[in-house]
């Protein structure tokens, strides 16, 4: 009795360890985010562009100049002059440009987030596909065993000369067809893992989960749309582009102020020297002409463009959400109908009892199996659609 308890506990512990070692979808996505080469390259690109933007708000280099005039006709000695000066735009220009750079940097980060979510959504699709394939593998493994059992039964009847060779061949072909399905699923699993590993920077991943962990029930449509508007980087990009256009207008207005120059000047001849400060003003009469109007037009365009794109996104979201709800209702009806039928076992029992011929058994079996396969496929498509609807949460 004591040994049985120990063996039972050991089995539970091993099962728990095996389960703990099987990574979840969330852990797979974390690894992909860390190892994906595209995301690494995108991160470096964003950082380089951010530094490039910051460099655009630097002061111009100071100017250093000197004159030494020994030539010509003069009696008082050679003329020398030395000057150092620094030019700069009006102080408010730097503040406005700094704010614009911050907005542009935020836009770069949103571009990264769009790329990141696209890659993670693709990786999650592969994980969902593997779950679907694992569920099919479980189903087909059982069907292979049932087909083998039927073939053994038919072969026994054939040897007793109770059925002909044609029925035996049909049973053999049915068994072979189920085995071929196993081989195809194994090939699909390998190919899907290969694509998942590619997203993981070529690092090998193992994923054996055979059940979906998330509920198919979504939040209310309006609540989900409000959430998307707040955190979806694709939609947030539109608002950010409008903010950039608004700040570009502010910068253009500030550039109407004059540029300034300040410095030190020293001049001397024949032992005499004069020195003092130097100041200058550049009045932007022509350089900023029409730039404010152009920035204002760009802002108005961006506002109209954002309204149009947001409306399109909302329409697309509603269509996708409505289609999802219809498919979910259909799937729930399928699941409720098929879950309690136990058709495979009942048909096999009827066949073994001689109540059905092989062809009758096979035709009835295919009808129920096709219905069950359609339910599995529908469930998989629902999770793929859900992944697209909730991509902004990744």
TrEMBL record:
The keyword Signal appears for this protein: yes
Signal peptide: 1-20
InterPro entries named among the record's database cross-references: MdtP/NodT-like (IPR010131)
Top-level taxon: Bacteria
Residues spanning the membrane: none
Sorted UniProt keywords: Signal
Full protein name: TolC family protein
High-level lineage: Bacteria, Pseudomonadati, Bacteroidota, Cytophagia, Cytophagales
């Amino acid at each position: 009795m004591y040994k049985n308890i120990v063996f039972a506990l050991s089995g539970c512990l091993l099962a728990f360890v095996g389960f703990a070692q099987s990574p979840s979808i969330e852990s797979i996505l974390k690894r992909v985010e860390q190892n994906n080469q595209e995301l690494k390259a995108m991160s470096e690109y964003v950082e380089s562009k951010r530094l490039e933007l910051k460099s655009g708000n630097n002061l111009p280099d100071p100017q250093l100049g000197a004159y030494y005039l020994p030539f010509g006709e003069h009696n008082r000695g050679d003329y020398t002059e030395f000057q150092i000066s620094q030019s700069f735009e009006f102080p408010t220009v730097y503040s406005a440009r700094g704010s614009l750079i911050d907005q542009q940097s935020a836009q770069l980060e949103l571009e990264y987030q769009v790329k990141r979510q696209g890659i993670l959504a693709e990786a999650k699709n592969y994980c969902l596909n593997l779950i679907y394939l694992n569920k099919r593998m479980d189903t087909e493994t059982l069907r292979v065993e049932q087909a083998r059992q039927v073939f053994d039964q038919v072969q026994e009847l054939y040897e007793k000369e109770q059925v002909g060779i044609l029925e035996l061949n049909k049973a053999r072909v049915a068994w072979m067809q189920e085995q071929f399905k196993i081989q195809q699923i194994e090939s699909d699993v390998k190919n899907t893992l290969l694509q998942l590993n590619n997203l993981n920077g070529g690092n090998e991943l193992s994923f054996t989960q055979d059940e979906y962990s998330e509920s198919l029930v979504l939040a209310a449509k309006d609540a989900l749309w409000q959430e998307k508007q707040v955190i979806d980087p694709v939609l947030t990009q539109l608002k950010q582009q409008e903010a950039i256009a608004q700040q570009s207008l502010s910068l253009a207005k500030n550039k109407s102020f004059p540029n300034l120059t300040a410095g030190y000047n020293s001049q001397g001849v024949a032992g005499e020297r004069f020195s003092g400060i130097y100041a200058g003003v550049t009045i932007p009469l022509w350089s900023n002409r029409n730039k404010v109007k152009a920035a204002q037009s760009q802002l108005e365009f961006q506002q109209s463009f954002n309204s149009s794109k947001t409306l399109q996104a909302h329409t697309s979201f509603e269509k996708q959400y409505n289609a999802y709800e219809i498919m979910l209702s259909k799937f729930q009806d399928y699941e409720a109908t098929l879950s309690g039928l136990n058709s495979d076992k009942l048909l096999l029992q009827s066949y073994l009892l001689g109540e059905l011929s092989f062809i009758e058994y096979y035709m009835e079996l295919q009808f129920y199996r096709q219905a069950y396969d359609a339910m599995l496929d529908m469930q998989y498509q629902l999770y793929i659609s859900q992944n697209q609807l909730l991509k902004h949460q990744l």
